[in-house]
Each structure stands twice: as C-alpha cells, then as structure tokens.
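Chapter review. Work through the record for Glycogen debranching enzyme C-terminal domain-containing protein before attempting the end-of-chapter questions.
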Amino acid sequence: ASRSEDSQYDINPKLVNRRGIYKDVYKSQDGFTDYQLRCNLCVAMAYAPQLFNREHAQICLENVAKILMEPGCMGIKTLDPSDRQYNGDYINSDMTHGWNYHQ
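Structure tokens for Glycogen debranching enzyme C-terminal domain-containing protein:
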C-alpha cells in the first residue's frame, strides 16, 4: 500500500521498512517486526488465497521474487536484506553453530 492508503489499514508509518508486502505477524511486542518482509507469508497465501486481495498479492509476490530470491540459489532468504535484523553472513564458528541466519 502506498502512504496515501495508510488510513485504510492498521499501519504505523514510522515502523514501515518496505511497502508492497503482507504482514506475517500482527501486533508483535517489538512492533517493527510486523513490517518485516519474510518468506512465511507465502505459506499463508498458498494455504488461504481467498484472504488476500489479488492485486496486492501479485505486488507482494513480485517483491518476494525480487528481494528474497536470487538466480542460482537453492533457497529463499528468510528476511529482507534491507531489514536491520538481516545477517546474511555464514560463519561456522559463530553463535549459530553452523546454521545460516537469513539465507
């Protein structure tokens, strides 16, 4: 949704990191996590497509493809690289003990 449509939705414009997405959480404790682009929303769209506005869903899925997917990669990023919590570096000796962060 563009800023001009904010009044039609439950949105805190100060927390929006990226537009053209669907939330996969709502009223989270931290607030900003409501506005993170994550691949989880694709599961909801596949399971209950009737809950989504077709035009908005198309825009969202185009953003998922453009932002969370890379040519030649086997998987999908689990968080938007522009998100402040994104950490795409894989270092085996770090706190994840061999598990990737968001790739």
